[in-house]
Amino acid sequence: MQKRREERCVNQHKKIILIGPGYTEDMKNAGGVTVLFEQMLEDLRESDVDFLAINSNKSAHGGSAKTFFVVMKTFLTNIRHYDHVSIHGTANHYIMIAPFVIFFAKLFGKSVSLRKFAGNFDDIYEKGGVVKKALIRYVLRNADLSFFETKYLVAYFKKFNPNTFWFPNVRRRPQDTAPKSDFRHRFVYISHLKDEKGTPELLEACKRLDDRFDVTIYGPVHEAKYTPEYIAQYNTRYEGALTPHEVVEKLKEADVLVLPSHREGYPGIVIEAYAAGRPVLVTDLPAIAEIVEEGKTGVLVEPKNVDALVEGFYKFTEENYPQMSQNAYAAFAQFDSMPQTEKFLERIEGLR
């Protein structure tokens, strides 16, 4: 796939510039925020919206400084021709790009919306220095609309801007997915391989499982120690990174998704598991607890606790699994991409 710095599509709604982390040539290393931004662009194409997408993924441009230059140059060249600017990104986008984009958007009389991906932004704000806090407050207070992925972040940041709303992690339900009735003890981990994703706890837990369990690990390796040989010592196996399409197929082959992260927003892979009708074994974090119902759509365990994780594996049984799969499949409805994008567009259309 060629690098995409900007993209045009044509419509009847307000004309929108979207700035966010798009795909690069390496599809297998696409993170959740990239998948989310690309899903938004796909929804806008189908809704016949006139938009310009500017790729703020630093991997597409060769570093942070060049990315900033490309984004600002493209933005300033085109701002006169659009009605609204929408910034989609992580904390770094809010601190490095958003203040400048908002300043010039207001200078040209354009409305602005912000969409923050992932969780823990409250923690970043609380622990930030004077300058970082000031930049975040400036961005939030001067945006016309703010969207956060989790309900607890909406509640926290509404004090800076009353026009703050929930925009969860979303996906499209793939074709040929359905709830599953048979439980074969097949678990799958699909995420980055690094300590904060709970990889050490997962490996140690796998050593303690009996022979009925089959656990397969997929994802980009971010810490060199996680070689296939190292992982094989723990009664499991590593099968490499996946493209977005391959993720769906591997979820359909499995019974349960396992994700023992130390911190998360709404993990996209959990939403994808729901779309495929697969319950989840995940850590009991504030954001995850908003979307996983204990004993119904999955099992919640204490973070960084190997004993609790092992116990969680054994909570899935042939008796309770069919209903949990049905529940997970039904839970996906609130994370269906197009209805959420339509709400997003309605709020933008409501701005003067």
Overview of the structural elements:
The chain has 352 residues and is an alpha/beta fold. It has 2 domains: 6-170 and 336-349, 3-Layer(aba) Sandwich (Rossmann fold); 186-335, Rossmann fold. It has helices spanning 32-46, 64-78, 91-107, 121-127, 130-142, 151-157, 199-208, 228-232, 244-253, 268-275, 286-291, 306-314, 321-331, 337-349, and strands at 6-9, 16-20, 51-55, 84-89, 111-116, 145-148, 164-166, 186-190, 214-218, 237-238, 256-259, 280-283, 298-301. Helix 2 (64-78) runs parallel beside helix 3, helix 3 crosses helix 5 and helix 7 (199-208) crosses helix 12 (306-314). The longest helix has 17 residues, at 91-107. It is globular and about 65 Å long. The two termini are 38 Å apart.
Distance between the termini: 38 Å
Strand content: 15-25%
Order of helices and strands: EEHEHEHEHHEHEEHEHEHEHEHEHHH
Counted by DSSP, the helix tally is 14
CATH class of the largest domain: Alpha Beta
- CATH architecture descriptor name of the largest domain: 3-Layer(aba) Sandwich
* Average of the residue pLDDT scores: 92
Biggest sheet, open or closed, and with what strands and sense?
Answer: 7 strands, mixed
- Given the helix and strand composition, which structural class is it? alpha/beta
